[in-house]
Structure formats: structure tokens, C-alpha cells
Specification:
CATH architecture of the largest domain: 2-Layer Sandwich
Number of helices: 2
Protein name: NusG-like N-terminal domain-containing protein
Distance between the termini: 18 Å
Organism: Rhodoblastus sphagnicola
Pfam family, one: NusG
Keywords: Transcription, Transcription antitermination, Transcription regulation
Order of helices and strands: EEEHEEEEEEEHEEEEE
CATH superfamily of the largest domain: NusG, N-terminal domain
Helix content: under 10%
Shape: elongated
Radius of gyration: 20 Å
Number of strands: 15
GO biological process, one term: transcription antitermination
Structural class: mainly beta
Number of domains: 2
CATH class of the largest domain: Alpha Beta
Length: 200
Amino acid sequence: MFGGGAIGPCRHPRSVAMTEGATGAPMRLDPFELAEGERWYVVQALAKRETSALYHLSEQQFRTFLPVIAKTVRHARKTRLVRAALFPGYLFVALDLQRDRWRSINGTIGVARLVMTQTSPTPLPFGIVERLLDYRDEDGACRFDRDLVVGQTVRIVQGPLAELMGELVRLDANGRVRVLLDMLGGQVPATVERSALEAA
């Protein structure tokens, strides 16, 4: 359905604590926890307008999630690390179709459409968004380097070697990895940060 990086093996989502608000009604400590009757749905944004769609949906009190990754971009011989949408042009919204005025989503600034099947929004299978949420780091970006193993084919996603492929040959306890990169007609060894890799 989407472009972007691959989703790694499913891990158990973080447990979510519950408490009671001033009215005695249950109150979520985790803003991404689904209430009874809610599911995650897909919103297609206008080109390069994901953050605008996110903002304007949030202003309408919709709970949204835009998965982002840290990636390196090159311009004028310089590189810089930026946050980019994991699935360019898409974000997620939590809805209870019986409760929420979901039709207003299609008229929201930055939104192209709510992904539908005939006359109703199409819910995502359980576990997809939860898996992405569980892969966030302390800065909120998704990272897919947790399950790397020696011998695996990997892609560098950050730094001056971004987009090169290679074989993972060593992991150390300090977060550094040794990779044999496929370049210059052979395999060239390089040491990079573990966070700069993803499974190919």
C-alpha cells in the first residue's frame, strides 16, 4: 500500500497504563492507545503536505500518527539529517465510525482523501500501527535496526554512505557495526553507527 522502508518483525506493543480523569471516566496515558470501537485508518495527504494534514486533523480533535524516519539528504555537496515521512503521502487516524464525524476528514486542509472501500473507510489490520509505534526511538522517529543479525544484507540510511548496500559482519556493544559495502567492484569494509542501518 505504501512506499518507504520495510517494517520489521512484529514485537509486542508497549503496555499502556490507565487512570481515571476528574469525571471518573477512563483516561488514556498513551495518546495512541485505541479505545473500544476504534480502529486505525489511512489518510492520503496531498503531495508533500503530510505535516499540514496532521496539524489540521489534530485541530479537529482527530488522533493522528505520522510515522517518520531520520534520513540523510544531499544538496550542493553537503549532507544533512532530516526527518521524513516513512510512507510519503500517508498518515494514520484513529476513528470510531459510529461516533466520529469522519466525513469531515476529506475536506481537511492538506488531505487528499480518507482511504475507502466503497462507502466506508477501510480499517488497517490490527498490529500494523502498533508495530510502528513500538519501533519509535526517544525522538519519535521509527528505527528498524533492532533486529539486525550478522550475515544480513543491510542498507545504510544515514550519512555520506546513505543508500549503499552491504553485508553486516560485526556488531559491538557500543552501537557500532562493521559492514562490507558493495562498491568499487568489490566489498569495502566500513564502520558505521547501528542506527544508520536497516534490513534490506
